[in-house]
Design brief:
The protein has 396 residues and is an all-alpha fold. It has helices at residues 14-32, 38-44, 49-77, 80-99, 103-131, 134-148, 151-165, 170-189, 203-206, 209-238, 244-267, 274-297, 302-330, 335-357, 366-385; strands at 2-3, 196-197. The protein folds into two domains: 12-197, Growth Hormone, Chain: A, CATH 1.20.1250.20; 203-390, Up-down Bundle (Growth Hormone, Chain: A).
Length: 396
């Protein structure tokens, strides 16, 4: 490990934090604005629903790979230039999506969009780790997650507005515009934050017991969220007869619960040990999982589903962002590599859990509830067993 040349002290200013939040929100916006247009995309590009769904898959694959490679690379060469390049590529990829003449081009463009977006996201998180530590790191990560969590609420509404007044391709123009704005913002307001340059990928991170424990909790929290995302429409609409509008309102309400929980956790960062907040979140998740499993075995009555989903999603606001912050704090020497593994495993878990949770289809929510409980138990086990190997100074 070699030191870089001395630089003026850089702090996490409001401009830098706002840039990180917006960069983190680009990916969910690029997905949530686009999903409502799937039927129109299939019609306009003369293809089937399966092919259109694959454009979502290629985006997630790109996100996972971009985060896995971008974090270690930025540990080696710095944050600012790779971030600027990734945002320029994201702008170009979004424009290519908007102009795609066929489904094949759209798949490639979405892969590139996901890759560049994931690359930018992992560097943005690394910048927060560069500039903060301890309770400030936990608070900043919760603020990022909480504010960026508004994107899943705004995204579908923007997508619906786009479809109401104009063409589905406009959603990609909006993403391109946001990415271009971030290029200008980073160029003007985000300095280089890396202080020590290391190897492109450090095996020390994977050998750190404390990091691995929090990594598992963080990834399983994303798995829990995607178990809900993959099945909630079937549970509430197909099994309980909710209209698409009512379902959208409930989905937004649950997202608000998650966002509020992350912002509350940010306020608690220097008052309550962060590890205890994660434990409380997992305990509440367990209660929600038991409630949902009982409801699933009884045919999933609507009140049980509504209450169970709200409690489940709100609890994740206490688990995921805090576990991610604690994991990053375990490996301050390799913030990019740590963020890369967090992002990569997060999206891999989402891809694995979603189809498994949906095995019950429109008939049963038992697979979803069982997965939630299994992930919660495994998270508790990981959190308890990693206590001896973690740095205590970052957990309060």
């Amino acid at each position: 490990m070699t030191s870089t040349a001395a630089r003026p002290t850089v702090t996490l200013t409001a401009t830098v934090l706002a840039s990180v939040v917006l960069i983190t929100a680009i990916a969910p916006l690029a997905t949530d604005m686009y999903v409502p247009a799937f039927p129109l995309v299939a019609r306009d590009l003369n293809t089937g629903p399966t092919e259109v769904q694959l454009t979502l898959t290629t985006f997630f694959v790109g996100m996972a790979l971009g985060q896995l490679l971008g974090g270690p690379f930025s540990d080696r060469v710095g944050r600012r230039r790779p971030l600027l390049v990734s945002l320029v590529v994201l702008t170009a990829a979004s424009l290519l999506c908007a102009f795609s003449p066929g489904i094949g081009v759209l798949m490639v463009a979405r892969l590139l969009q996901g890759f560049s977006g994931g690359w930018a996201m992992v560097i943005a998180r690394s910048i927060v780790v560069d500039l903060t530590s301890g309770a400030r790191l936990v608070r900043a990560m919760n603020v990022v997650a909480g504010v960026a969590g508004i994107a899943p609420i705004v995204g579908p509404l923007l997508g619906a507005a786009v479809l109401q007044f104009t063409h589905w391709r406009v959603s990609f123009w909006l993403v391109a515009g946001l990415a271009a704005l971030m290029v200008a913002t980073v160029a003007v307001g985000v300095p280089e934050t890396l202080r020590r340059r290391g190897e492109p990928f450090s095996g020390d991170v994977l050998r750190h017991r404390g990091f691995i424990g929090y990594l598992v909790v963080f990834a399983f929290s994303m798995g829990t969220i995607f178990a809900y995302v993959a099945t909630s429409a079937f549970v509430l609409q197909s099994m309980n007869g909710l209209s698409p509008v009512a379902y959208s309102v409930d989905f937004a309400f649950n997202a608000v619960g998650l966002t509020v929980a992350t912002l509350v956790a940010a306020r608690l960062a220097d008052r309550v040990p962060t590890r205890r907040v994660v434990l409380v979140g997992l305990a509440v998740t367990g209660v929600a999982g038991v409630t949902l499993l009982g409801g699933a075995l009884a045919g999933m009555p609507l009140p049980v589903a509504l209450a169970g989903f709200f409690v489940l999603m709100t609890a994740q606001g206490l688990v995921g962002p805090n576990a991610g912050a604690l994991a990053s704090a375990q490996v301050p020497e390799h913030p990019g590599t740590g963020s890369a593994l967090l992002g990569f495993l997060q999206w891999c878990m989402a891809g694995v859990v979603a189809p498994l949770a949906g095995l019950g289809g429109e008939r049963s929510a038992v697979p979803m509830a069982s997965i939630v409980l299994a992930l919660t138990v495994l998270s508790l086990f990981a959190l308890i067993t990693n206590q001896r190997g973690s740095h205590r100074c970052v957990e309060s």
